[in-house]
Amino acid sequence: MRITDVEAIWLRIPSFTEPCEWGEDAFIVRVHTDTGIIGIGESDSSPAVLKALVETPSSHSTSRGLRDILLGENPLEISRLWHKMYEESSYMGRRGAGIHAISAIDIALWDIASQHYGVPIHTLLGGKLRDTIPAYGTMIPKDTPTETAEAVTELLAAGFSSFKLGGGLFGLDPEHDQRIVHAARNAAGDDAKIAVDLVYRWKNYRYAKTQVDRLHEYNLNWIEEPLPSDDHDGLRRLAETSRTRITGGEGLTTVAEFTDFIKNTRPDIIQPDITRCGGISEMRRIHEVATQHSTELVPHGFSTGILMAATVQFLASIPGGNLIEFSQSTSALYQDLVTNPITLENGAVRVRNEPGLGVQLDEDLISKYRVEMSLG
Ligand code: MG
């Protein structure tokens, strides 16, 4: 079996002058083989940058385009190809976008292997440990407490008993934040699990510690990314002094970066994104390190149904894989790119048992939103 093409697809709904808020653009890959099997993957990153990393002609032995690296290779040799991509793109890769692009391809390779062997991906990963995975809903809080309470009521009605608030105005004004969390707790009741996401907005340890203490009375499930990921000292002091769990890591890549992050900041939970951290292969290695350091893993996931399908297969195969993020995005790419998406049933998602990721893509939607720009 040989790889015959790596198709890098950039999808974008709004014009280039409009920003994307949550999921209005996407980067997906299709890895084609000489047997007719096609693997699908994605990365939640900057599509234009990732498309260039795949398509660029090779410069020299450690600055090679990912497509160049893979053409003619056996797609079933996933681990060897992961390290080949890592090494031969290391001058412009090694972390960040270079690993994001490898993540998309790695997911596609697992899709191919699973179809080829005729067993689910979770079987290739060592076996399924659960049939369903509880989900938590992620929402951007509304600008007022009243509207936020209404949105929370809708989430509960949809079946969630666990949810997360982040983005919008949240994290900019402590008084406002407290009113929003107060309204959410009142609407949800004492039993619901509520987390908050600061997206780095608390800036330094002293300020963050004051806010963590202020929100203690609301019994939050966790406080996510209170400080920048590179502020290891601040994050460690916060983790050591906070009575609420501290989480982070959705922007980190590779087991090397996660190992430093875990050892230096002592988070309660890490949140690697399977489409960014290095794909299914690297996610497994990151999970091993987390397990050895008393750290839970709850993946970040806020993109299309491809990400969701890959995350479900991974979580089904690991001990403790019992919480998945479920986006509330209304983007057409989130809702319609995959025509057979994994849906919420009684606050959980079901683990699929067919070979491959099992996602079918809406080709009309791809044609409609595809950005036709190519390096070669
Ligand atoms: Mg987050």
Poorly predicted residue ranges: none
Query: Which band does the percent of strand residues land in?
Result: 15-25%
CATH architecture of the largest domain: Alpha-Beta Barrel
CATH C-level class of the largest domain is Alpha Beta
How many helices? Answer: 14
Indicate how many domains the architecture comprises. 2
Overall pLDDT confidence: 96
Number of strands: 12
Kindly provide the radius of gyration, computed on alpha-carbon positions and rounded to a whole number of angstroms: 20 Å
Span between N and C termini? Answer: 24 Å
**Order of SSEs:** EEEHHHHHEHEHEHEHEHEHEHEHEH
CATH superfamily of the largest domain: Enolase-like C-terminal domain
Attached small molecules: magnesium ion
| Silhouette | globular
CATH topology (fold) name of the largest domain: TIM Barrel
The percent range for helix content is 25-40%
Sheet with most strands: 9 strands, mixed
Summarize this, please?
The chain has 14 helices and twelve strands. The chain is of the alpha/beta class.
3D structure, described in words:
The chain is an alpha/beta fold and 376 residues long. The strands form two sheets. Strands 4, 5, 6, 7, 8, 9, 10, 11 and 12 form a nine-stranded mixed sheet that branches. The chain has helices at residues 47-55, 66-70, 78-88, 96-117, 121-124, 145-157, 174-188, 205-214, 232-241, 254-265, 279-291, 305-316, 332-336, 363-369, and strands spanning 3-12, 25-33, 38-43, 132-139, 162-166, 193-197, 223-224, 246-248, 269-270, 296-297, 324-327, 348-350. The chain starts with a strand and ends in a 7-residue tail after the last helix. The mean pLDDT is 96. The chain is globular, with a radius of gyration of 20 Å. The longest helix is centred in the N-terminal third of the chain and has 22 residues, at 96-117. It folds into two domains: 3-119 and 362-369, Enolase-like, domain 1, CATH 3.30.390.10; 124-350, TIM Barrel, CATH 3.20.20.120. Helices cover 39% and strands 16% of the residues. It has 14 helices and twelve strands. The protein binds magnesium ion (MG). Magnesium ion is lined by residues 166, 197, 199, 224-225, 250.
